[in-house]
Write a structure and sequence with these properties.
It contains three helices and 13 strands. By secondary structure, the chain is mainly β. The strands form two sheets. Strands 1, 2, 3, 4, 5, 6, 10 and 11 form an eight-stranded mixed beta sheet that branches. A hairpin with a 2-residue loop joins strand 10 and strand 11.
């Protein structure tokens, strides 16, 4: 879901320089006559969209980390199951103003990190994603937390935790 964290002073200076905004992924909107619902699964939220005919059109789960007492996003992880892919995928969004050349690293419960390339940036942030094969999916379901590592443009290393509490139950609702 959405968590606020306290961060060191140096990081707050970095965070206040970011140009980020909330995305539609975290905003419950009523587009036309479609309806959107959000359900909480421990630390994860699952958002689903239904059409006018009450047909489920899409669902995804997400978790965001915000600067404490702010709506500025430091990190967002989204998991969905697009129909055009063989399985689920995870997308990580880091703030603008980061050094994207090294990409990001994700480590589940302190294990060997997985390197992800930053694919593109837009006004919402910079995106890195991966398909969740059975091995990675199993580790996420059994894990306690992910540490996401990326760099500020000054090359300062930033490490942020994402809780995996509720990951399995949230994923099950995407089926």
């Amino acid at each position: 879901m959405i968590r606020s964290i306290c961060v060191p002073i140096e990081f707050l200076v970095f965070a206040t320089l970011l140009v980020v905004s909330n995305t539609a992924a975290q905003t419950v909107e009523n587009a036309g006559n479609d309806s959107t619902s959000v359900a909480k699964n421990k630390d994860w939220a699952v958002q689903c969209q239904k059409s006018v005919q009450n047909v489920l059109t899409s669902c995804f789960m997400f978790q965001r980390i915000l600067i404490k007492n702010s709506e500025e996003s430091l990190l967002r992880m989204t998991v969905d199951k697009p129909k055009d892919l063989s399985g689920p995928r995870a997308v990580f969004v880091i703030p603008l103003g980061t050094y994207v050349t090294p990409g990001i690293k994700i480590a589940i419960d302190g294990n060997e990190p997985l390197d992800l390339e930053v694919e593109y940036c837009d006004k919402q942030g910079c995106y890195a994603g991966t398909l969740l094969d059975q091995s990675l999916l199993s580790r996420l379901k059994l894990g306690r937390q992910i540490i996401v590592t990326f760099q500020h443009r000054s090359r300062q290393v930033i490490k942020l935790p994402i809780s995996l509490a509720g990951f399995s139950s949230g994923l099950a609702t995407l089926n």
